[in-house]
C-alpha cells in the first residue's frame, strides 16, 4: 500500500505533459488563404510640409538694396593655400584583409557615425549652414520654376514643342518633389532657414523653358556634389544625398524632353558653392525682409557667344522626328552664366515631335577643336536678391579657360580679342579610355593660371577665377 502512495506523490511532481498518457498527434497541412481585393490599412500621416507662396511676381527688382555684399564674419583670413598630403592618408594597406578588431559581428572597424550614437540632423558648423542654405535657395527656385512654366505656357504650347499632357504632369510632380526637398532642408536649418523669393526668368517659349530647366537642375545638382563630402554633419549629408539623386533624375528627364541623349557621361560633376551661387543669384529678383543671406562669392558673368544647341522639328521619317545640331549660331544665348539657348517662338498649333531615346538619332553637339567664342563682365555688378550682392574677382589677368567635367579639371589657352572678348578651343581629352571628358552639360570659367586640382579640392580654384562659370552644352 505504501508504494502506491509513493507512486502517486511522484506523479504529482511531474509536469503535466509527463504525467498524462502519451497521445499520437496527426499532422495536417493547411493552405493559407488570402482574401481577394484591397485591405483597409489606416494611414500613418507624415509631418506637414513647409508653407510657400502659391504664386509670385516674375519681374526684375526695381528698388534700392538695403545692404550690399555677401555675408561676412567679423574676422576674415588671408586665404587657403594648397597644402600637402597628410601622412595618415596613405598608411592603410588596402590589401583586402581585416587589420583591426571588429566592433560587432560582420562590422569592419572604421567609418563615420557607425558607433551606435543617435543621429542628430542639424548643421554642425558655419560651413554646413551656409552650404545647406544654398541648397535650399536652389530648391525654392526649382519649385517656382516648374510651376511658372506650367502656368505660363498652355497645353497647346507644350504640344507644339513635342510634349504631351503626361509630360506636363511629370513636371508638376517634380514641383511637388521640390516641396519635400525644401521642407527637409528647412527642418535641418531651423527657424532662420531661407524663405522662397521672387524670380525673373529669361525664357519666352516652351523650348527655352525646357533648356533653362535642364541647365538649372544641372548646376543645382553639381553644386551639392561639390560640398556634400565636406559637410561636418554626416546626418544632413545622408538626407541631402537622398534628395539630390532625385534632382539628377529631373535633369535627365529634361534632357530627354529636349531630344538630348539622357546621360552621355560616365561621371557627374561637382562644382564649388560660389560657382553654383554665381549661376543662381542673377535669377532671384527679390526676397522677403530679414531673409537669411549667404557668404558665397558672386563671380562676374561669362557668356558663350556660340553655345551648342539642339533643334528639333517634325519630319516624315520613319521614326517620326528629326534633329539638327546648330553649333555656329552667334548670340544664341539668353543670358550669361546659365547660357540657356534662344529658340524661335513656336507658331504651329499642331502636335510637334521630339526625339525618342534611340541612339541612331543622336550626334555630337560639339567636338574637339571647336572654337568657343566668349564674352565676360567686369566685377562690380549688383545682382541677386534685391540687387544686394556684388560680383567680385581677385584674380590677375585672364589667361586660361578651365573645363570642369566628370572627374577632370582641364585648361586651354584663352586668346584675347578686343575688350572682354576672346576665344578658346575645345580640348580633346578622356576621363578614361572611350569616355570623352568634354561631354554632357558641363562648366567652364576664365582663370588667371592653371593650378592642378581634383574634384575634392576644386574650391581652391576660386581665387583664380576671372569670370564664370558658364554652362557649356558639350553633348
Automatic annotation (TrEMBL):
Q: Which InterPro entries match?
A: Rds1
Q: Please report the organism this UniProt entry assigns to the protein.
A: Penicillium steckii
Task: Please give the Pfam families that the UniProt record associates with this protein.
Answer: Ferritin_2
| Keyword vocabulary terms for this entry | Signal
User: Which segments carry the region annotation Disordered?
Assistant: 30-74
Signal peptide span: 1-19
Q: Its domain of life?
A: Eukaryota
Name it: Stress response protein Rds1
Q: Where along the sequence do coiled-coil regions lie?
A: none
